[in-house]
Design a protein that fits this description.
single chain; 133 residues; Recoverin, domain 1; 0% strand; globular
Length: 133
């Protein structure tokens, strides 16, 4: 039964992400840090498609910023982030999705748990487990 509940939660999360493209880019919120002040309007650009991704160097920089924020929030230094630590460390994506990330219900999440969760969400956004005929 707990697996069914987890699948329902994941389905609801995907539905909410699909209805709001800004929320679909989960990485942008926590990896880039707190939202920046609105900048002056720049040139008009084409909207980003889901299949497009930032350049590898930008992805690496975002990942490193997230790791730094994770480590700063992990005040015990054990590589395990509790819900309270995520709240105090201002990591809203982890706070909102803590139960879904902590699939083993350990009471904490690790960077590997977060990585696995993000890969699962990415796969669901991209169509899940498609098999060729």
């Amino acid at each position: 039964m707990p697996r069914a509940i987890t699948l329902v939660r994941a389905g609801l999360l995907v539905c909410s992400l699909a209805t709001s493209p800004a929320l679909a880019q989960v990485a942008g919120e926590d990896l880039a840090g707190p939202p920046q002040a609105a900048a002056q309007p720049g040139p008009v650009t084409q909207p980003r498609l889901f299949s497009q991704s930032p350049a590898p160097a930008q992805q690496h920089a975002q990942a490193q910023r997230f790791i730094d924020r994770f480590q700063a929030a992990n005040t015990t230094g054990d590589g395990r982030l509790t819900l309270a630590q995520a709240q105090a460390g201002h990591l809203p994506m982890i706070v909102r999705n803590f139960d879904a990330i902590d699939v083993q219900h350990k009471g904490y999440v690790t960077l590997e748990d977060i990585r696995a969760y993000r890969q699962q969400m990415r796969a669901m956004r991209e169509g899940g487990d498609r098999t060729s005929n």
